[in-house]
């Protein structure tokens, strides 16, 4: 099953966290499922999944939202990887990124976790940091607000005006990464927006 890609959208479970900055990874996976009109279902790896296709005849996609809290995302991600026989180079982790300005998308494979505990836990559980990441910029708080509180706040009214476009663009980035590779996705999404 070399053509099966696992897309893991990071976030925290429950309605309290649904609309928060920390959950943008799950919002992106929701968008990918919505495009395919597919509902999530429970999986024994402590996650909700959609099994679908990039498009007919193309790569199989497993869209996943761990049921665990962000800091312990590794267990569900590794469990799904084992279940579907997916190697780390085909596990795309979609997550929020403090060190990237809001409304910006960056892609990379491997490297450090940048203080992101969800990414750290997945790297530990998989035994490698070498998996592709779609990092969705949420920016840092202005003033003295603790970043740990900032990520758990809902998006501001101003941010919510462009949030659907950001989520859609990040979903496009996931699809392009799978379809044409990391470099093609980086060339498109790392360029300044017109």
Question: What's the arrangement of secondary structure elements?
Answer:
Layout: E1 4-9, H1 24-35, E2 41-43, E3 47-53, E4 60-66, H2 74-84, E5 91-97, E6 105-109, H3 117-126, E7 132-137, H4 147-150, H5 157-180, H6 182-189
Parallel strand pairs: 1-4, 1-5, 5-7
Antiparallel strand pairs: 2-3, 3-4, 6-7
Helix pairs in contact: 1-5, 2-3, 5-6
Q: Could you please describe the fold and organization of this structure?
A:
It is a single chain. The chain is α/β, with parallel strands linked by helices. It has a single domain (4-189), classed as 3-Layer(aba) Sandwich (Rossmann fold), CATH 3.40.50.1470. Helix content is 36%, strand content 21%. It contains 6 helices and 7 strands. A 7-stranded mixed beta sheet has the order 2-3-4-1-5-7-6, with helices on both faces. Strand 3 and strand 4 form a beta hairpin. Helix 1 (24-35) packs across helix 5 (157-180), helix 2 crosses helix 3 (117-126) and helix 5 packs antiparallel against helix 6. The protein is globular. It is found in: Cytoplasm. It holds the Pfam family Pept_tRNA_hydro. Hydrolyzes ribosome-free peptidyl-tRNAs (with 1 or more amino acids incorporated), which drop off the ribosome during protein synthesis, or as a result of ribosome stalling.
């Amino acid at each position: 099953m070399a053509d099966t890609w696992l897309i893991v959208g990071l976030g925290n479970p429950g309605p309290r966290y649904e609309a928060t900055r920390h959950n943008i990874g799950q919002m992106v996976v929701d968008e990918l499922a919505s495009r395919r009109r597919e509902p999530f279902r429970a999986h024994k790896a402590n996650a909700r999944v959609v099994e679908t296709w990039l498009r007919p005849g193309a790569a199989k996609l497993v869209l996943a939202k761990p049921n665990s809290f962000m800091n312990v995302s590794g267990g569900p991600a590794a469990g799904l990887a084992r279940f579907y026989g997916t190697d780390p180079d085909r596990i795309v982790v979609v997550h929020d990124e403090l060190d990237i300005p809001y409304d910006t998308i960056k892609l990379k494979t491997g490297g450090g976790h940048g203080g992101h505990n969800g990414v750290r836990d997945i790297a530990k559980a998989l035994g490698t940091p070498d998996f592709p990441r779609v990092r969705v910029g949420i920016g840092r708080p202005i003033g003295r607000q603790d970043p740990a509180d900032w990520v758990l706040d809902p998006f501001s009214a101003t941010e919510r005006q462009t949030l659907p476009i950001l989520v859609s663009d990040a979903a496009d980035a996931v699809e392009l990464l799978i379809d044409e590779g990391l470099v093609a996705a980086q060339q498109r999404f790392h360029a300044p927006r017109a």
